[in-house]
C-alpha cells in the first residue's frame, strides 16, 4: 500500500491525456472546494470552471473544453467525460489505496447448509442466508443482511447492512373485519450488478417471484413490495417505495421518498421526481412530478385552505365567463 | 412432502364445491396469467372472467356467478369468496407443501434469562429479546429482530427480520438551544395475531405504553411513535408513519407512505390513501386523501407555481364577482 | 432499588419549590389523565389546568401561575419550566428506579481489533464496529448497529438498534445506459450527545466525510445521504430524508417524513413541517410547509383534478379581468 499515486500512474491505468508533470504526487481524491495541494479533483461541468483558478488541488481532471484554462494553472488529465473518469478513478483508488477486506464468509454469519455461495462471495458479520438461497460470484452481503429462503442474488451484487430480501409480502384477505394471511409462496430473484442500500427491503412474491433485473441500484430504506418487477439499470433514491405488483421499466429513475402505487406499469425511461406519488400507469418516457411547493407557513396555510375550494373556484370562473358572454 | 395435491384433497380440506375431475393434480398455485397446466389459479373478480378461457391453469377457483363459464373449460372449485378461499389455500399449501422450519429458538439468538417465551415461540438468528420481555404462544420472531426491555408480544404474532420493538420514543425538552432527553419509561404492548413487516419500528412509551391491539398488520419500514394506540385489525402499508400519541381506531387502513401527525385521533373505519398526510383528527369513518396529482414535469411546474398564488387568485375572483353585480 | 421516592427526595435532587407534604410517596411518573394516586404528573401548559381538579395524581409539577390551584388539591412541585423539570425527573428516575444495564461490550458484538472504544462505551448484542472506527466516552451502541470502517462517534451518543453508520453513499456515474459505481472513500463523523433512532442510516461521504454536529437528534428510519452536513442541535423526526450534499443549519427541525433534496442549504433556525419537501435552499429562519391538505376522497378528487388545470384557470381569470377593464 503506497501513500499515494503519481499522476502518470493514474493515466497509465485509466487513460486520459496528461498535461503537466506526471510526477505530481496525489495523496487523495477531493472535491474542488476542499482539495489541498496533495489532492486530485475533477471539474464535472463547465459551470464550475471558475473554481479552476481558486482550487488548491495538485491536479485536475477536466473536459477538453477546459484544457487551456486548467493547464494554465498546473497539471491536469483531460478526459471526454470527467465524471465517468472520476468514477473509475475512485474504483482504482479503492483497490490500490483503500482496499476493502478480502471476500470471506464472516465466522459470525449464519449460512444454511442448503444455501449456495458462489466463489468470491463475501458475507458480513451476523448476516443470515436461509435455506435454498443462492448468491452469485463476487457478491458482497453486508452485516445484518437477511437473504430469505429460496431467494437468488446474482453476480457482483452489493447488499448493504440491514437489507432484508424475502420477507413476506403484505397480503391479506379481509374477512369478518379481520385479515386472513395469504402465505407468500414466491421468492425474490435479483440480477447481476445490483446494489441495494442499507435497511432496504425486497419482499418475496405471493405466488410468482419478485424480480429485480441487472444493474438496478436502490438507495437506503427503499421498500419493494411483493411481485414488483424492476427493469434493468433503473435507480431509486432513498426512502422510495413501490407497492405490490407494480412493474417499473428499464432505465427509469425514482426520486427519494417517491411512492409508486400497486399494480401500475411504468414504461422504460420514466423519471419520477423526488417525493412524487405515481397513481396511474405511465406509458411515455419523460420526467414526471407531483409535489406541493414549499412556502413560508402563513402563505402555505392560505393556499392550502383555498385549495380545498378549488373545484368551486373553477365553477365560479365558469359562471363569470358565462355572464360575460351575452 | 408430496409433490402436489389432488383437487379433491383440497376440497376435502377447505370446502367449496368441486366441478370436474377431483383427480386433477395440482403442482403449484399460480396467478391466472402465469399459470401452467399443473397450476391452480383463482378468479378474484368477475372483471377477470375473460381470462377464464385464456389461462393455462389446470383448475380454477371461481365464484358461483362464474361457475358455468369455468366448468366449460375444465375442473374448478366454486366458492362464495374465491379470494378468501385462496388465502386459506395458501395456508394449507404452506403447511403441506412448503413448510416453514419448526418453531425453535435459534442457537445464535440472544434471549435474556429474565425474558419469558411461551411454548411454540420461534426466535430467528441473531434476534435479541431483552430483559423482562414476554412473547406469547406461537409467535415467530424473525432474524435480527430486537424486542426491548419489558415489551410484550401476544400470541401467534409474526415479526419480520429487522423489526425493532421498544427503542426509545423521540422525546426531548428544548432548553437553551439544546435538547434535554426525556427518558422513555414506558414499554410496548402488542396484542395477538399482529404481523409487523421487515425493519419496521414501534417505539416504547414515555410514561405509559405504546399499544398495538389484536390483529393489526403493519407492512415494512413503518414507524410507530411513542404512546401511539392502534385499534384492532387496522392495517398500514409500507413506509407509513404515525407520530407520537396518535390514536388510530379499529378497522382502519393507512396507505403506503402516509403520515399521521402526533396527538391526533382517527375514528374506527377511517381509510387514509397512500402518501396522504393527516393533520387533523378525523371523527367520521370514510376514505380520505391528500396527494398532489402527478403530471409531466412542465405542467406540474406551471401548476405548482400558480398554486403559490392561489389565495390571491381567489381574491381576484371575488373582485370580479363584486364588479359584476351592480 | 427502592419501590419509589418521597416528594422531598425529588425536590432535594432536582430543585423546585415543594408545596404540601414532602412525605408523599411517588411510585411512578404518569401523564395527568392516567395518573393514579401513587403517581407524580406534570402540567405542561396552562391550557391543561382544568385537569388539575380531575387527575388522581398523588402530586403535580406546575408552573408558578398554577401554584394556588394545584396547592388547593394537594402536594405539588412548583418549577419555572415544568416540562424541563419533567425531563430531568425522567433522567433521575431512570438512574434511581429503572436503570439501564451497565455499560459493557456485549460478548456477541463484533468489534474489529483496530476500532477504538473509549471508556464507558456500551456495545449491544450483535453490533458491528468495523476497522478503524472510534467511539467516544459513554456512548451507547444498540443491538444490530453497524458502525462502518473509519467512522467516528462522539461522546455520550445513543445509537438505537439497527442504525447503520457508514454504508456507501448512493453515487454512480451514468454511462451507456448503465451506472458506474463511484466508490465512497469518505467516512462519517458524528459529534457529542447525538441520538439516532432505530434503523436510521447515515451514509459515508464520497470523498469528504458526512458530518453530524453535536447535540443532533434523529428519530427512527431517517435517511442521511452522503456528504450531508447537519448543524448542532438540529432535530429530525421519523422517516425524514436528506439527500446527498445538503447542508442543514444549527437549531433546525425537520418534521416526520419531510424530504430535503440534494445540494441545498438550510439556514440556522429553519423549521420544516412534517411531510414537506424542500426543493430550494432556504436562507431565512422560520417555519416552512408544503403539504396537500387532506380531504374526504370525493372532494380531494375534484380539487386534485382541477389543480391540474390551475395554470389555465389563472389565464382565464386574467382574460376576465382584461375584458372587464374597457
TrEMBL record, chains A, B, C:
User: Which keywords does the record carry?
Assistant: Acyltransferase, Lipid A biosynthesis, Lipid biosynthesis, Lipid metabolism, Repeat, Transferase
Where does the UDP-3-O-[3-hydroxymyristoyl] glucosamine N-acyltransferase non-repeat region domain start and stop, copy by copy?
A: 25-92
According to its UniProt record, which residues of this chain constitute the active site? 226
| Reactions catalysed according to its record | a UDP-3-O-[(3R)-3-hydroxyacyl]-alpha-D-glucosamine + a (3R)-hydroxyacyl-[ACP] = a UDP-2-N,3-O-bis[(3R)-3-hydroxyacyl]-alpha-D-glucosamine + holo-[ACP] + H(+)
Lineage, top-rank taxon, reads Bacteria
Annotated pathway, please?
Answer: Bacterial outer membrane biogenesis; LPS lipid A biosynthesis
**Record EC number:** 2.3.1.191
Q: Does the keyword Cytoplasm apply?
A: no
Cell division: present as a keyword of the record?
no
Tell me its family.
Belongs to the transferase hexapeptide repeat family. LpxD subfamily.
Question: What does it do?
Answer: Catalyzes the N-acylation of UDP-3-O-acylglucosamine using 3-hydroxyacyl-ACP as the acyl donor. Is involved in the biosynthesis of lipid A, a phosphorylated glycolipid that anchors the lipopolysaccharide to the outer membrane of the cell.
Could you describe the subunit structure of this protein?
A: Homotrimer.
Q: What is this protein called?
A: UDP-3-O-acylglucosamine N-acyltransferase
**Which organism is the protein's source?**
Hydrogenophaga defluvii
What lineage does UniProt assign to this protein's organism?
Answer: Bacteria, Pseudomonadati, Pseudomonadota, Betaproteobacteria, Burkholderiales
Task: Tell me the name of the encoding gene.
Answer: lpxD
Amino acid at each position: 500500500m503506497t501513500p499515494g499515486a503519481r499522476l502518470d500512474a493514474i493515466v497509465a491505468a485509466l487513460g486520459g491525456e496528461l498535461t503537466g508533470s506526471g510526477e505530481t504526487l496525489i495523496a487523495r481524491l477531493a472535491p474542488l472546494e476542499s482539495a489541498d495541494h496533495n489532492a486530485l479533483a475533477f471539474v464535472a461541468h463547465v459551470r464550475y470552471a471558475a473554481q479552476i483558478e481558486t482550487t488548491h488541488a495538485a491536479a485536475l481532471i477536466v473536459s477538453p473544453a477546459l484544457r487551456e484554462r486548467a493547464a494554465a494553472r498546473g497539471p491536469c488529465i483531460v478526459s471526454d467525460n470527467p465524471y465517468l473518469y472520476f468514477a473509475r478513478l475512485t474504483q482504482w483508488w479503492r483497490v490500490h489505496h483503500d482496499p476493502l477486506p478480502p471476500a470471506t464468509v464472516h465466522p459470525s454469519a449464519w449460512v444454511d447448509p442448503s444455501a449456495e455461495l458462489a466463489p468470491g462471495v463475501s458475507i458480513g458479520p451476523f448476516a443470515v442466508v436461509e435455506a435454498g438461497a443462492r448468491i452469485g460470484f463476487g457478491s458482497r452481503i453486508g452485516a445484518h443482511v437477511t437473504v430469505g429462503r429460496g431467494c437468488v442474488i446474482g453476480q457482483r451484487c452489493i447488499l448493504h447492512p440491514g437489507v432484508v430480501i424475502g420477507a413476506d409480502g403484505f397480503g391479506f384477505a379481509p374477512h369478518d373485519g379481520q385479515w386472513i394471511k395469504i402465505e407468500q409462496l414466491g421468492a425474490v430473484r435479483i440480477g447481476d450488478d445490483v446494489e441495494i442500500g442499507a435497511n432496504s427491503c425486497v419482499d418475496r412474491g405471493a405466488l410468482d417471484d419478485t424480480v429485480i433485473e441487472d444493474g438496478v441500484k436502490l438507495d437506503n430504506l427503499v421498500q419493494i413490495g411483493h411481485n414488483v418487477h424492476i427493469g434493468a439499470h433503473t435507480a431509486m433514491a432513498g426512502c422510495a417505495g413501490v407497492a405490490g405488483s407494480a412493474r417499473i421499466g428499464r432505465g427509469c429513475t425514482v426520486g427519494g421518498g417517491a411512492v409508486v402505487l400497486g399494480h401500475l406499469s411504468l414504461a422504460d425511461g420514466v423519471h419520477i421526481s423526488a417525493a412524487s406519488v405515481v397513481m396511474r400507469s405511465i406509458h411515455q418516457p419523460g420526467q414526471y412530478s407531483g409535489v406541493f411547493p414549499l412556502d413560508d407557513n402563513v402563505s402555505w396555510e392560505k393556499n392550502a385552505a383555498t385549495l380545498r375550494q378549488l373545484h368551486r373556484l373553477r365553477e365560479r370562473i365558469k359562471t363569470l365567463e358565462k355572464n360575460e358572454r351575452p
